[in-house]
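FAQ: What does a ligand-bound record look like?

Like this one, built around copper (II) ion:
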Amino acid sequence: MKSIMTAALLLLTTVVFAQDKKTQKLEIHTSSVCDMCKKTIETEMIYEKGVKSVALDLASNTIFIDYDPRKTNPDAIRKGVTKLGYYADDLPGDPEAFKKLPECCQKEGCGVKKDE
Ligand SMILES: [Cu+2]
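The answer part, i.e. the structure of the complex:
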């Protein structure tokens, strides 16, 4: 009986690890402020290569991302965020992309100009 339990536990552990390899979690601190930011980041980042899910928490300014480590890496994902005109951890947003953001985001300084 004990050996069956051990085997089951081992199998479970293996399954969990196998899933881990396919999906990694990443948290990126960003400069978003309003709902439009949330919309922009969530709808654009989901098309980023290897990104499986995107959720932005406005209260903590954090983007929660699930990604496939075989297809992308944290640096590439951060770069994707900056390409939208937003901060990604300590990387500043792309100024050209910022100009294309919705007007409210530019006015409220959601994107790159926040710290300027
Ligand atoms: Cu905004």
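Follow-up question: can I read anything off the structure? Yes, for example: The longest strand covers residues 51-57.
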